[in-house]
Amino acid sequence: MSSTSPNHKLLIYQLTIRLFGNKNKQVKPWGSLKENGTGTFSDVNETALKSLKKFGITHVWTMGVIEHATMEDFSELGIPKDHPAVIKGRAGSPYAIKDYYDVNPFLAENPTHRMAEFEAMVERVHKQKLKLIIDFVPNHVARQYHSDVKPTGVLDLGEGDLSGVAFSPENNFYYLPGEEFIIPEGVHVPVESVQPYHEYPAKATGDDVFSSRPNINHWYETTKLNYGVDYLKNRATHFDPIPNTWFKMRDILLFWASKGVDGFRCDMAEMVPVEFWGWCIPQVKAKYTVDFIAEIYNPAQYHNYIFNGKFDYLYDKVGLYDTLRALMEGRGNVADITRIWQQESGDIDQHMLRFLENHDEQRIASEFFARNPNYAIPAWVVSATMGRGPLMLFFGQEVGEPAADAEGFQTKDGRTTIFDWWAVPQWQKLMNEGKFDGGQLNAEEKQLYDFYAAVNKLCQKSEAVQTGHFYDLQYVNNWGQSPGYDDVHMYSYLRYTENQILLFVTNFHREESRTAEVRIPQHFWILVGLNPEGNYQYKDLLLAKKVKGSFRATESISIQIPANGVFVFEITPQ
User: Residues near 64 by Cβ (< 8 Å), separated by ≥ 6?
Assistant: First the structure.
């Protein structure tokens, strides 16, 4: 019954630097940098990092580090000005990279020394025994990509391309010869430009749009990178000899790894051929100890990107996230959790990164999702403890940020903007003018924060959660077998090693408590080498620490679990 698996239970904290440190509360839609303000590298300081360390975090994902296109003017620094017609939002998207070899100047107190300030932040993170993750955006770049600080001898993306042909494996971009790029109809440009945007020949757009006329819902602010796949000829591949883009992107990863970065969250990784990843990742790992996380949405490709692409971790969005979201919204059935476990158990469980929020998804507390952040309590426990893989939390989630504003380019849709200069109100309460002590939170918000901290602590300290085996209990607990057990809303399971047994009981019903019997089958006791007729005791480790008792293995455990309730019982022989 022992577990020899390594510990993959990373606790990743995702934060958008320009929002994380912004203390300005008087922000306005479509406001400029000067009007709305921004956070900087210096806001990820010792106080903030100690707070995150105490909260239970192991890895910090600082989003928006690498220089991206923006409507702000930094030409005084020698950075070419971007055309506002091909930028989303006044701040711009962190996923429209403008210079892979630079950091955003607005994130520095002294933009002239911006890279040194980034490196100092990396040192602060490491000083607190934390690790740093940044984004790597491999599929597309800003339409006006240009590196003005690339290392000596490095050719820029597109430099040397044959733009008169639609495809060449030696080109970095895809072209539409004879066609000029057309700005989509309906694009709002709040900043004036003397000249109209000109791109000839037009390049293919980032979301695989091979047309000079993308619409407003496409990634029109980006251009697709060419990894040797001829999309217009049935995706024919040209990987021998190695395409030029492969070398350039590998070298970019090596550049950032040399800065002390500990991991890369790879944006839309499945839009880049798995052959590239399988070639590139081992080369980077041969020189640096780094983790690679893939944003991926096709379960049919999970094994491919883990075992052939060599990724360490994959997003578990089309799976556990979607299942838990339905339950948090008062719909769905916990039987779907069992289904996800059956699909993802075995050789990929430890590779699946679980989350309930990130910058792409709607906030739990928003009017477009669950409305009440407490509805996440059972879902978060399942996300954190069901598997051996990493856990990710988005800043502000732990205090119920509702993303209630229309920020500018980001409309009122329940998401925290990545495109606009803005502030995150609930987060500002926790940040408390830079004290990071939650001093402005009310009692209910502090209680929610304490819940997340308790789950994090459990993940850090529990051997069973980190490396233990999983045992689903739904098959022996239902209305027919276990009196009062609501098998639509209640989900129970065990995590265990030779040293620890934990029983998890959750109630996803948003309004009703349950008085129920929970059974552990004889098979489990025999499996773990314990007496199937013995006496055992239990105590809750998470929220209701006074809940404890004893039971005989041949009998049920009687519980009364509140709405949105969770018990984490440690079971020991009596």
Answer: 16, 17, 18, 94, 104, 107, 135, 418
